[in-house]
Design brief:
Number of strands: 2
Strand order of the largest sheet: 1-2
Oligomer: single chain
Helix content: 55-70%
Radius of gyration: 29 Å
Length: 192
């Protein structure tokens, strides 16, 4: 859906949807090819109630009844093919919406879907580990200077390759420590 269509789906203005997108309440993961996936967006907003269209585009209210039956007097009137097609299309969209919402709920329960806050917190921890390692690079100045004095430019290249490998190994090890700490904190949160 476009933002305008999603706004109509939610019963709010397009500007309200734009504001939710800017605030990150509707995450980038709710967009597919530049359009909003209504089930993913509603799920992110904590909205999981069913949305059913009860009127066609002409405003004719079917009231949940079969549109091929008309008046209260019981006379049978056949609705136009376009009205039936629109109702079928609305019902199909509702079923797709239900299936997509159920899929998102399942993914969250089995741990495939993470909250934005959890991902942001993990990224901040990883960034801190990376910054800490990068800040230690000046400590290798003596090693590089000795390599240059001994073997010139090729020695400096080799020293830098060794330093890069050591920093990469240190990052891997520190990232595992952060992941282990997060797992332990998550388990404590579940048991508390």
């Amino acid at each position: 859906m476009t933002q305008t269509e999603y706004a109509a789906h939610r019963g709010v203005s397009r500007q309200a949807i734009s504001k939710l997108v800017k605030q990150g309440k509707i995450p980038a993961s709710a967009f597919i090819d530049g359009k909003i996936d209504p089930a993913a967006a509603d799920f992110a907003l904590g909205e999981t109630r069913e949305r059913i269209l009860s009127a066609d585009d002409d405003g004719e209210d079917f009231g949940g009844a079969d549109p091929t039956f008309g008046s209260a007097a019981g006379t049978r009137q056949v609705a136009s093919d376009s009205s039936v097609a629109r109702l079928t299309q609305a019902k199909t969209a509702t079923e797709i919406y239900r299936a997509r919402t159920a899929e998102l709920e399942y993914d969250q329960r089995v741990g495939k879907l993470l909250s934005t806050e959890d991902v942001t917190r993990s990224m901040e921890k990883c960034a801190a580990v990376i910054v800490r390692e990068l800040e230690g690079l000046p400590n290798f100045a003596d090693e590089i200077a000795a390599a240059i004095a001994k073997d010139g430019l090729p020695g400096a290249r080799q020293a830098l390759k060794n330093i890069a490998r050591n920093v990469r190994l240190a990052l891997e090890q520190n990232m595992r420590v952060v992941a282990t700490q997060d797992d332990e904190a998550g388990k404590e949160g579940v048991t508390s």
